[in-house]
Design brief:
With about 270 residues, this protein is α/β, with parallel strands linked by helices. The protein is about 40% helix and about 15% strand. The chain is globular and about 60 Å long.
Length: about 270
């Protein structure tokens, strides 16, 4: 597995086959967000979009806490340690932090989350921007901003009610309620629970499955899952779904997939 030159001190970015692995690396601060971490994540998501050899990404973290959200010790008046590169980037991409946290301009390919330990505040907010989620058996989730007099600006009050039952989402964002891995599984917040220390390994298994599929189909289905939800009337959603499906069925990959099925062999997809 090769580390890429877009890594930063607090965000390690590696490539393993067709999968980008993004690792939050600030364990001494419970992986709380800082500018160097956000810079790395922003670069990772843009690389995922731009590199046709990549099909998905895994987001994970070093240490026994996935992420404690914003670094409250640094704000509102503290030194956040922003580098010149980060400040220059903000001059041209003002919402770079929201792109990093998957609120804005999410990459067009699937994102897999691997959580060990606590995922609180921004740690659960970024979860809602991913597509497939693995949690260790001791993982804990919660949107705790309200307890600090803050607003969950990365989108939890919007996304969580669309992803899990409304009352559960309200309990999380209004009361700052923590939930266990088992509750998160039952509510539909995560996909799978694994033994402690195995979240990344399980996420890699998911990534391996994704990387066997057709790249064009994968991107189109990902768009459909994210964009055509219950706020769009079913008839309109079906028409938009047909628009996504058309280019996929007209592709060389679609023909290759059907041919491979007929010939009882693995498909050789090229993204064309």
């Amino acid at each position: 597995m090769a580390e890429l030159d877009i890594s930063t001190k607090n965000c390690i970015i590696e490539q393993e086959g067709k999968t980008l692995i993004v690792t939050l690396n600030r364990p001494e601060a419970k992986n709380a967000f800082n500018p160097e971490m956000l810079l790395g994540m922003y670069k990772a998501w843009r690389r995922l979009d731009e590199d046709d050899s990549l099909m998905c990404a895994i987001l994970t973290a070093v240490g026994d806490t996935f992420c404690a959200g914003m670094d409250l010790k640094a704000g509102p008046d503290g030194d956040n340690g922003a580098s010149e590169e980060f400040m220059n980037l903000m001059g041209t991409v003002p919402n770079v932090h929201w792109q990093a946290l998957l609120r804005d301009n999410r990459p067009s390919k699937p994102l897999i989350l691997a959580v060990e330990g606590y995922a609180l505040a921004g740690g659960t907010e970024i979860l809602a921007g991913t597509d497939l989620r693995v949690g260790a058996e001791d993982s804990i989730y919660g949107v705790t901003e309200v307890a600090r007099g803050l607003y969950p600006m990365a989108g939890s009050s919007i996304r969580l009610p669309r992803q899990i039952p409304y009352c559960r989402a309200a309990e999380m964002v209004l009361l700052g309620r923590h939930c266990t891995a088992q509750e998160a599984l039952e509510w539909g917040l995560i996909n799978r629970i694994v033994p402690k220390g195995q979240a990344l390994a399980e996420a890699k298994k998911m990534a391996e499955e994704l990387c066997k599929t057709g790249p064009l189909a994968l991107k189109a289905i990902t768009r459909s899952l994210r964009e055509l939800q219950t706020d769009i009337a079913e008839e309109e959603a079906m028409l938009k779904s047909d628009e996504l499906a058309g280019p996929v069925f007209a592709s060389k990959d679609a023909k290759e997939g059907m041919r491979a099925f007929k010939e009882k062999r693995p498909a050789n997809f090229t993204g064309e």
